[in-house]
Structure formats: structure tokens, C-alpha cells
Design brief:
- The chain is α/β, with parallel strands linked by helices.
- It has helices at 40-46, 97-100, 149-165, 183-194, 210-217, 230-237, 250-259, 282-291, 304-320, 339-347, and strands spanning 2-6, 15-18, 29-38, 60-61, 65-73, 85-88, 91-92, 113-115, 119-120, 127-130, 135-138, 175-179, 198-203, 221-224, 242-245, 265-268, 295-298, 329-334, 353-357.
- The strands form four sheets. Strands 3, 5, 6, 10, 11, 18 and 19 form a seven-stranded mixed beta sheet that branches.
- Bound molecules: NADP nicotinamide-adenine-dinucleotide phosphate and zinc ion (ZN).
Length: 363
């Protein structure tokens, strides 16, 4: 079967590779892949910034956002049937205390593997085999949107963790700023809007801009930070209760640290992949953080629970704003052979969610 492999740490190395079609062992299911979403992580890996091949291979199959359909079940698999839609998670645990508890997204030792990223082949291929522990059932009516479960799970985790940590005090946030209006920023925007917050979504591109229009279609306000800075926005809003950071732009991140309101939270999800240094008003930031009981935390990846809540929330968002999530799918590339077009689509300023359509979706 075909797959798209990259040679880790080598720029622009994506190429077609041939793998044996896997057969499910006892306790595994064989899944035919329908489509795969690709994102900045796949782009970074193809730019040679990170990525690790599985043991015994000199390439890594990309892709960590998938939707598939079960084609065969191995002995001992009871809760999956041929024809079921499946989404599989990304991270596979090591044996650290958190991984043993099913919280591999909180891995302590860092010896986890990740499909399509670190030491384990991903989903840009035709089939995979997996254990049900790492698979989620998708109802037929959600199949069109299910490839969004992975990126949504990242936003789900960050937001759920903020509420959980804030159980340390009375916290009923009324407003939120989402920095970044890419796939992650928009999904965080929709989740926060669905919770009823007044949301301001920020990026540098001026309107008219599809990403800004989608944020506004959910009732959020789109702010172009070239016209209104984060600091100016905070003055307009008043006490800033929550910031979900989805740019990785360090200048903006430190500006965010300085403007969080009292009892406010800054959730850092964006990754900074350059080696920028900055001059910052460190004393003033620390003083405000301490005196205002402010919280800053990082969040990476998501475990099965957040994939499950992502599925529920995607259904909820679809009900609240019909068709909105579908508008995230800006580029559908047909077939693995067209992988170059898929990576090119990621470079296109007008792209939000790029998918590679691998096999037909059952009707
Ligand atoms: N923590 C995790 O587990 C996890 C998982 C997935 C992704 N990520 C990271 O999360 C971030 C967002 O992911 P994504 O897929 O949504 O990426 P993306 O599509 O590249 O979106 C980035 C967004 O940030 C905006 N932006 C960039 N620099 C900015 C600046 N200085 N000021 C204001 N806006 C700025 C961009 O819009 P303009 O160009 O218009 O400014 C764009 O809307 C990335 O850093 C990604 O690596 C983290
Ligand atoms: Zn671990």
C-alpha cells in the first residue's frame, strides 16, 4: 500500500513509499483510511525541524488527524464491527505514572511515541491496525467533520484544564481572547463561544479574511492586531478572564502575560519554533502576576477523553451554527499521489484545514 514518508530532519523530503498492508493481530482492528487532515506539524516535519522515524525505518509516515472505516476485526475485539467509522488518537504511552493512568498527554518521562510525529508511522497511508484503546467510534452523521476531532481535542484539553485548575477559586469567566485564527484558534473560539463567553479572536491579517469571518459567524469579534494591539484590546474589554494562545508568537505571548486580568488565565498552546530573544518588562509582569493571582500554563496534545468531548462539542457547534465547521475545509486534495499539492496548500494564505482524501467515504 502507498504512504507518504519523510526523512526526518531533512527539508522537503516528502515522498511516496510502499508499505505492506497490515493484518490485525489478536485484539486489533484493521482500518481503511478515508481522509487525513494535515497541519503545521506536518509542514514542520517536512521542513526537517523535528520528527522521528520508527525503529527499523529511515522514513516516517506523516499524518496524525484521521478518519477511517473498520474493514476487519482481529480475534478478541468485541466492540468494533466492520463498517464502523473510527478516529484514532495520536500519542502512545510509555510506562511513566501518568501514561499508566491513561494520561499520556501528561507524560512525565517523554518516551511516548506519536503517530506521524515521533517514532510511529502516521495516517497518510491506506490502512492502519490499532487497538480499540486508541480508537473512538464516530456516528455516521458526524463522519464529515470527524477529522477535526484531533485539532479540537487540543483546544478541548486547554480549556477544560483551565476550568479544572481554576476550581482553586470562584471563576466564572465572561470574556476570552484567542490569539491566532488558524484551525486551532478558530476551534478554541467556537468552543468558548459555545460556553457563552464574549470572545475576541486576534490575528494579523486584515478583513475581509475568511478566518475572521468564521470567528464572527460564531458571534466572536475578530481583531486585527496591526490595527488594535492586545494591550489596547485589554483596555477596551476590562478585566481579561481568559486568553487561549494559538500563535506561538513570543512577542504576543509576553504581551498576553502583561494584560491578563485579576484571577485570569493564560493557556499557552502555540509552539514557538524559532530562537527569538526579547526584551520584556519582567519586573512589572511578575508583580502583576503575583498580585492578581494570575495563572499561566502550557498544554500539549490530548488524551482519548478530550477526543470524546471534542466529538460531542463538534456536534454541539454544528447544531448551534450549522455549516460553520464545514467552512474550515478549504483545500481537499485527492489521493496520496498528490501529496505535493497538499504541502503546497499549507503554504497558501487562504488555507485553513487541508485534507488528503484517500478512499471513498461509505454512504
Ligand atoms: N499544544 C499543542 O498540542 C498544539 C497542537 C497543534 C498545534 N499547536 C500549535 O498551535 C499554534 C496554532 O496552530 P494552527 O494549526 O492554528 O496554526 P496556523 O494555522 O499557522 O495559525 C496560526 C495563527 O496565528 C496567527 N498569528 C501568527 N503570528 C501572529 C502574531 N504575531 N500576532 C497575531 N496573530 C498571529 C496567524 O494569522 P496571521 O498570519 O493573520 O497573523 C494564524 O491565524 C501553532 O503554533 C501550532 O504549532 C499546538
Ligand atoms: Zn509517559
Amino acid at each position: 500500500m502507498k504512504a507518504i514518508g519523510v526523512t526526518p530532519m531533512q527539508a522537503n523530503s516528502a515522498h511516496l513509499v510502499e508499505l505492506d498492508k497490515p493484518t490485525p493481530a489478536v485484539g486489533e482492528a484493521l482500518v481503511r483510511i478515508i481522509r487525513v487532515g494535515i497541519d503545521g506539524t506536518d509542514k514542520d516535519i517536512n521542513e526537517g525541524k523535528y520528527g522521528q522515524a520508527p525503529p527499523g525505518y529511515d522514513f516516517l509516515v506523516n499524518g496524525h488527524e484521521s478518519l477511517g472505516v473498520v474493514e476487519q476485526v482481529g480475534e478478541g475485539v468485541t466492540d468494533w464491527q466492520v463498517g464502523d467509522y473510527a478516529v484514532a488518537t495520536v500519542r502512545r504511552p510509555d510506562e511513566c505514572p501518568n501514561c499508566l493512568l491513561g494520561e499520556s498527554d501528561m507524560c512525565l518521562w517523554g518516551n511516548y511515541t506519536e503517530r506521524g510525529i515521533k517514532g510511529r508511522h502516521g495516517y497518510l497511508t491506506e490502512y492502519y491496525v490499532e487497538k480499540p484503546d486508541f480508537m473512538l467510534h464516530v456516528p455516521k452523521e458526524m463522519a464529515d467533520l470527524a477529522v477535526l476531532m484531533e485539532p479540537t481535542s487540543v483546544a478541548e484539553k486547554g480549556i477544560a484544564q483551565a476550568y479544572r485548575i481554576q476550581e482553586r477559586l470562584y471563576w466564572q469567566p465572561k470574556n476570552a481572547i484567542v490569539t491566532g485564527a488558524g484551525t486551532l484558534g478558530l476551534l478554541a473560539t467556537f468552543l468558548l463561544r459555545a460556553r457563552g463567553l464574549d470572545v475576541y479572536t486576534m490575528a494579523r491579517t486584515p478583513m475581509p479574511y475568511l478566518n475572521g469571518q468564521l470567528a464572527e459567524a460564531s458571534g466572536a469579534h475578530y481583531v486585527n492586531n496591526k490595527e488594535q494591539s492586545l494591550t489596547a484590546l485589554a483596555k477596551q474589554i476590562g478585566n481579561v478572564d481568559f486568553i487561549f494562545e494559538a500563535t506561538g508568537a513570543s512577542q504576543l505571548i509576553f504581551e498576553a502575560m502583561a494584560i491578563i486580568g485579576n484571577d485570569g488565565v493564560l493557556c499557552l498552546a502555540g509552539l514557538s519554533s524559532s530562537s527569538n530573544t526579547l526584551q520584556i518588562p519582567a519586573d512589572a509582569i511578575n508583580m502583576e502576576l503575583v498580585l492578581g493571582n494570575k495563572l499561566i500554563f502550557g498544554t500539549v496534545n490530548a488524551n482519548r477523553r478530550y477526543f470524546q468531548s471534542a466529538l460531542q462539542d463538534l456536534a454541539n457547534i454544528e447544531q448551534k451554527w450549522p455549516g460553520l465547521l464545514g467552512r474550515l475545509f478549504t483545500h481537499r486534495i485527492q489521493g496520496l499521489d498528490n501529496f505535493a499539492a497538499a504541502f503546497a496548500a499549507l503554504e497558501d494564505k487562504s488555507s485553513i484545514k487541508v485534507t488528503v482524501e484517500i478512499s471513498p467515504q461509505p454512504q
